[in-house]
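Please, structure for the following, as tokens.
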Amino acid sequence: MTRLLELLKDFNLLDFLRAAVDVAFVAYILYRLILLAKGRRAWQILIGIGVFFALVLGSEVMGLVTTNWLLRQITPLGPVAIVILLYPELREILEKLGRLDFWGAPLSSTSREDNTATLEEVVRATMLLAARKTGALMVLERETGLEDIIATGTVVDSEVSSELLATLFYVGTPLHDGAVIIRGSRIAAAGCTLPLSDSPNISANVHMRHRAAIGVSEASDAVVVVVSEETGTVSIAVNGKLNRGLNDDKLRQKLYEAFGKSIGKKPRNGSVSLNFSRRRSNGKSNGKGAGPITPATPPAPGPGATRPDEKPQP
């Protein structure tokens, strides 16, 4: 009891809060790094590094002098080996540290431009290309710049429209075999080359176009829409994850969610609501609806004209 009173007497609230914030910050950084590396090649490398240090500790506890000495000679090379093996992942981590989505902030807080019309044009073009089974790869830029990828293609700098997108991917055009980069409400470039994903979790039946979509979504925060050339299947890749078999409603929902937009109410059964003006007759309504509509009297024929019920004179 006396010991507890002495601890409470020496307790400093400011030091406790500083230590708590320090521990929480380090734990959050480690948590985000683990989420970033999980499911990729870096995850297996980190497991291998953990096994190596476990061998060093185990050999020391078990008294394996030669094995422990050999492992300790390799240990000083560890930092250099980690940088070489994890160079792509370290570069990606440094890039994501400067983005708000790494810290959990929504991307909509940085995107002020209303690109709803652009998203609708992308959905319309995607469904048109899917119906024709024309392969397509559309990359929608968000916060991370894609200047390196734009430099690999041809600058277009044109307003986004479904007709232009369908034309760019039409088989036989010079720019159809590549990706289209969409920045805001404009098509920045076409015929661009995307980095391929080297994730070991990708199935063997995923083709090059979809692998490229996953790759650019891993290297940046871009949203990628893919149309399969073989089956016409529509897919979308966000944050290294590929969702396949989407229809127009699902694609629109995914795009709106990625850009922090809300989808307005649509008419039921996909019908289009039209507003018609009511025409009432000169008489009063009988209480059950509008009065009868009096048919319009056809205009009188002019001089020399033939009435419908008359035969022309020879």
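The chain has eleven helices and seven strands. Strands lie at 136-140, 154-159, 179-183, 186-192, 223-227, 234-238, 241-244.
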